[in-house]
Amino acid sequence: MQRLSGCAAVLQPYASHPGRSRGRRHPEPPAPTRDDFQRDRDRIVHCTAFRRLVYKTQVFLNHEGDLFRTRLTHSLEVAQLGRSIARSLGLNEDLVEAIALAHDLGHTPFGHAGQDALDECTRRADPAGGGFEHNLQSLRVVDELEERYPSFDGLNLTFETREGILKHCSRRHAERLAATEPGGVARRFLDGTRPSLEAQLCNLADEIAYNAHDIDDGVRSGLLTPEQLDAAPMFAQHAAAARRDHPGLAGRRLLFESVRRMLSAQVYDVTDATRAALAEHRPADADEARRMPALVRFADASRQPQRALKRFLQENLYRHPQVVDTTERAKTVVRDLFAAYLDRPGDMPAAFAAKADRVQAVTDYVAGMTDRFALKEHQRLTGRALF
Ligand code: MG
């Protein structure tokens, strides 16, 4: 199949057109030189939560090494992959970039360990309303927690960017959100429709990015060995092809060449499978695409090898005893912080201490922390150093 390359592709009818945006919650005059999605992206890059991503864990804790992915470099890789695919499909690159850069803004310190611990803490503190979801928290960051504008909280992003940021949402939380914003970004979780094609693309770009970079970081950390990787589905075939084309290639260069081939293969896979789905379903515009099955997709034949790769990473990396050990200590840090602030809200900055909903205030404060700030606070409040 021929692929467009080089110059910017024209936006297709099924793409999100900035001129047809459902707009912002607080109406604002248009910017003179940028469209609304470009403006969303710029607001995200300049916000405080975005800068915190550099000190937040992806898989390896920030202090474990300078070259591992952080939430920031992960988000940049998702944006790069997403934009590259968007361009060849005629989707809106700026919207994809905005969603990709914001998709992890709500992540807690210490990656999934932090999230699991915070989830458990909020459920215990508030059995009726608790439960922490990082996608929902990302939306809270851009809707409420950023304080940069004189007349509204949050960044006042467009519906389309916010819709993409809210990738998952439990029914309970969706109902609550839909009550405060009827017809808003939570609606689709209640009526079973899909988000824009740009949002669908960001979800797949996220997967492509972490499957590849977790292999790279896993080897860098010494927790995965090159021999083990020969048993890693999907990766092994590209490693074999790299060896075939470059006899004698070994070590880092073989690893990078294999990862590079795996990334490219997945990008072409999504591009081709999505193009075929678009040709079959022919959405007339972005809204019609929302009512169709997910059109941005991998080929059916790639699903099984992808699941196998995820399983491989689960078993050999995410559940590696060394990772599990840091996971447990990270959970303790989050649990201790949550309990301390709930008990003594005055230990938080005044703006958080003054909030009426104490559980929500503590959740927002802890979720916003970087890894290293959380460790510093933990030591200050408990006198213990866990790392
Ligand atoms: Mg991500």
Outline the structure in words.
The chain is an all-alpha fold and 387 residues long. The chain has a single domain, classed as Hypothetical protein af1432. The protein is built from 19 helices and no strands. Helix 7 packs across helix 10. The chain is globular. Magnesium ion binds next to loops.
Which characteristics define this entry?
mainly alpha; Hypothetical protein af1432; 61% helix; disordered N terminus; binds magnesium ion
Question: Summarize this, please?
Answer:
The chain has 387 residues and is mostly helical. It has 19 helices and no strands. Magnesium ion binds next to loops.
Secondary-structure topology with pairs:
Elements: H1 36-45, H2 48-52, H3 71-89, H4 93-102, H5 111-125, H6 134-145, H7 159-165, H8 171-180, H9 187-191, H10 197-221, H11 226-229, H12 235-245, H13 251-281, H14 286-290, H15 300-318, H16 321-343, H17 350-353, H18 358-368, H19 371-382
The structure holds magnesium ion.
Residues 74, 103-104, 206 line the site of magnesium ion.
